């Protein structure tokens, strides 16, 4: 797919993935490499990072149902799976598609160029011994990969060191995944110190975050309201943003509900979560583009910080003292860069973390200003990204049906157990009789008080009755279009009954159909070949 060239005659991109790789290698990586970005923030990206399927990262305290959630999605056990009330999953397990069941240990996984995990090598053997890939043939895994994580510890357990930086590993994954799902157990909402640290490590990725309140069928409605309120309060304190994180409530496993009072709520929430996950393949390209922009902005700010520190260093004497002074006053350097280059405060790395990292570096070896490198990244953000964005939209239009399929996603989609089947406008879908006929006698009484002429009431007469529902005119206008099946501008007794039925559907909180379903077409009109769309 070639694009027309602009003034600078940029080389056209064949596809989004190839374009992202090329931009990173030719424009962003040189800046990162020169100013030691990889030592401070994140390892360099590889081709596999741009080619891999969307990934979903599951995070939660032990026994919140992370592994069971994965099993529920796939409707199949995966190699290395362990489930129990204690901290059973003690490893990071990447559940990915493969032609046959198998396990790949961490040390072998980080040398595979086709997998996006090579840079995890930096976390050392203590982590790699606790990292593996479970491969299996499963339709869900054809579209997404899922990362299961060790249960986050609480109480005394969290004092035992894991031997590697758990929060840093999660932050590495957070930068590369498409969705982060935080799981909470409705029975234990206490957020441990380790969990708080983890959520803070994910701070820059709130757009990818979703929260699941699991095992909600084990408490009654009143308790659920209290638990939900407590969870939102706790999250508000840790995430510390005015926006509310999306929380899905339910029981995500294939067992009977213990307390079925909230069944409809759980079904609706599960449907919403499934739709969110199903949309990941379609949005994968835009997510990778978004992450590259985030990375480029951070790399640019990082370069300005290094340049500024280098400029302040003395050429011969007092280097160590000056270094300590610069680290202590790093906040002032941030403000100076912010003013000079009109950079948003949100683009800067965390001050405390940056101060800690700078302490281990020799400032005199930092490179000086290299305008061409910074200009290349500016050009990438100003021009190349816009071209890629157009290509993203073209690719999305060419593949509109990309969605996760198989496993639990199939059961929730169609048939009598699909969400909302037989409810609202779908009521009576598989009944032989016209569903509106049940209440037609009461609708007929109203109809005949409106003085019909030749068996029909005018729009003005019908309007007087319909506005009593207090629904807005935009909604009543849509109901009129659906009910006036023969499009003659009048309603007969069947059409009037249908209009009242649709009003009831809307008043009960259901959505109106875009087109009148076949089972709602009045019996006398079913033989007519009439377009019943809007």
TrEMBL record:
Organism from which the protein derives: Salmo trutta (Brown trout)
Keywords for the protein's UniProt record, in alphabetical order: Acetylation, ATP-binding, Calcium, Cell membrane, Cell projection, Cilium, Cilium biogenesis/degradation, Coiled coil, Endosome, GTP-binding, Membrane, Metal-binding, Nucleotide-binding, Phosphoprotein, Protein transport, Transport
Gene Ontology molecular function: ATP binding; calcium ion binding; GTP binding
Domain EH: from-to ranges: 439-527
Pfam annotation, one family: Dynamin_N
Gene Ontology cellular-component terms listed: endosome membrane; plasma membrane
Membrane topology, record value: Peripheral membrane protein
Name of the featured protein: EH domain-containing protein 1
Main location: membrane
InterPro entries: DUF5600, Dynamin_N, EF-hand-dom_pair, EF_Hand_1_Ca_BS, EF_hand_dom, EH_dom, EHD_N, G_DYNAMIN_dom
One of the GO BP terms on file: endosomal transport
Assembly and oligomerization: Homooligomer, and heterooligomer with EHD2, EHD3 and EHD4, ATP-binding is required for heterooligomerization. Interacts (via EH domain) with MICALL1 (via NPF1 motif); the interaction is direct and recruits EHD1 to membranes. Interacts with RAB35; the interaction is indirect through MICALL1 and recruits EHD1 to membranes. Interacts (via EH domain) with PACSIN2 (via NPF motifs); regulates localization to tubular recycling endosome membranes. Interacts with PACSIN1. Interacts with RAB8A. Interacts with FER1L5 (via second C2 domain). Interacts with MYOF. Interacts with ZFYVE20.
Localization annotation: Cell projection, Cilium membrane; Early endosome membrane; Recycling endosome membrane
Dynamin-type G domain: residues covered: 50-281
Domain EF-hand per the UniProt entry, residue ranges: 471-506
Region (Disordered), start-end ranges: 515-534
CDD domains according to UniProt: EH, EHD
């Amino acid at each position: 797919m070639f694009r027309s060239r602009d003034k600078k005659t940029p080389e056209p991109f064949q596809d989004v993935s190839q374009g992202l790789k090329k931009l990173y290698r030719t424009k962003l990586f040189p800046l990162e490499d020169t100013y030691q970005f990889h030592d401070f923030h994140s390892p360099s990206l590889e081709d596999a990072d741009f080619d891999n399927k969307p990934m979903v990262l599951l995070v939660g305290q032990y026994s919140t149902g992370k592994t069971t959630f994965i099993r529920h999605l796939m409707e199949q056990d995966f190699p290395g799976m362990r489930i129990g009330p204690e901290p059973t999953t003690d490893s990071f397990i990447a559940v990915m598609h493969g032609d046959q069941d198998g396990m790949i240990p961490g040390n072998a996984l980080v040398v595979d160029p086709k997998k996006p995990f090579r840079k995890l090598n930096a976390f050392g053997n203590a982590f790699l011994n606790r990292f593996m890939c479970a491969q299996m043939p499963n339709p869900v895994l054809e579209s997404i990969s899922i990362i299961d994580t060790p249960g986050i510890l609480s109480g005394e357990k969290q004092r035992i060191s894991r031997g590697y930086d758990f929060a840093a590993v999660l932050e590495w994954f957070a930068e590369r995944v498409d969705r982060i799902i935080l799981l909470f157990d409705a029975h234990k909402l206490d957020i441990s110190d380790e969990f708080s640290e983890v959520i803070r490590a994910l701070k820059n990725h709130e757009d990818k975050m979703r929260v699941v309140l699991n095992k909600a069928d084990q408490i009654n409605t009143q308790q659920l309201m209290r638990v939900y309120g407590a969870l939102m309060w706790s999250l508000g304190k840790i995430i510390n943003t005015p926006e509310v994180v999306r929380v899905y409530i339910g029981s995500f496993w294939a067992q009977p509900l213990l307390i079925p009072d909230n069944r409809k709520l759980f079904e609706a929430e599960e449907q919403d979560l499934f739709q969110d996950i199903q949309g990941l393949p379609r949005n994968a390209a835009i997510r990778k583009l978004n992450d590259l922009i985030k990375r480029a902005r951070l790399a640019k700010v990082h370069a300005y910080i290094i340049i500024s520190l280098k400029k302040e260093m003395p050429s011969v004497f007092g280097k160590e003292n000056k270094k300590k002074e610069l680290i202590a006053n790093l906040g002032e350097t941030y403000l100076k860069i912010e003013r000079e280059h009109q950079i948003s405060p949100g683009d800067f790395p965390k001050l405390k973390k940056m101060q800690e990292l700078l302490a281990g570096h020799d400032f005199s070896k930092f490179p000086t200003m290299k305008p061409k490198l910074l200009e290349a990244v500016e050009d990438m953000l100003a021009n190349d990204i816009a071209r890629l964005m157009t290509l993203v939209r073209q690719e999305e239009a060419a593949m509109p049906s990309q969605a996760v399929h198989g496993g639990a996603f199939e059961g929730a989609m169609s048939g009598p157990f699909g969400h909302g089947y037989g409810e609202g406008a779908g009521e009576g879908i598989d009944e032989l009789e016209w569903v509106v006929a049940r209440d037609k006698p009461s609708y007929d009484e109203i109809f005949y008080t409106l003085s019909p002429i030749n068996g029909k009431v005018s729009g003005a007469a019908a309007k007087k009755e319909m506005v009593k529902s207090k629904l807005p005119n935009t909604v009543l206008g849509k109901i009129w279009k659906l009910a006036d099946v023969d499009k003659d501008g009048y309603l007969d007794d069947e059409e009037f009954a249908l209009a009242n039925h649709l009003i009831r559907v809307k008043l009960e909180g259901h959505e109106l159909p875009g087109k009148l379903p076949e089972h709602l077409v009045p019996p006398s009109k079913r033989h007519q070949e009439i377009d019943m769309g809007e």
